[in-house]
């Protein structure tokens, strides 16, 4: 009942069911996220902390480079 085993089983099921292909079609690429972050992000009516969190979500793993 370990979380690691559950996630491994879920990943295997996704692979068998071609869910990964569906996710790839429905999500934006890392390049698109970075472009949006650099050129199209506006604070709008977000609080500074919400804006920071939103930018971190857009950056994803790229923020760790």
Word description of this protein:
With 65 residues, this protein is mostly helical. It has one domain (3-59). Helix content is 69%, strand content 0%. The mean pLDDT is 81.
The tally of structural domains comes to 1
Largest sheet: none
Mean pLDDT: 81
Count of strand segments: 0
The rough form would be described as elongated
Ranges with pLDDT <50 over ≥5 residues? none
Rg calculated over all Cα atoms = 16 Å
As a percent range, the share of strand residues is under 5%
Query: Count the helices. How many?
Result: 4
Q: Helix fraction? A: 55-70%
Overall structural class, as computed from helix and strand content, comes to: mainly alpha
Head-to-tail CA distance between termini? 34 Å
SSE arrangement, N to C: HHHH
SSE blueprint:
Layout: H1 3-16, H2 19-26, H3 30-40, H4 48-59
Q: Which key features would you list for this structure?
A:
4 helices, mainly alpha, about 0% strand, about 60 residues
Describe the structure concisely.
The chain has 65 residues and is mainly α. It is built from 4 helices and no strands.
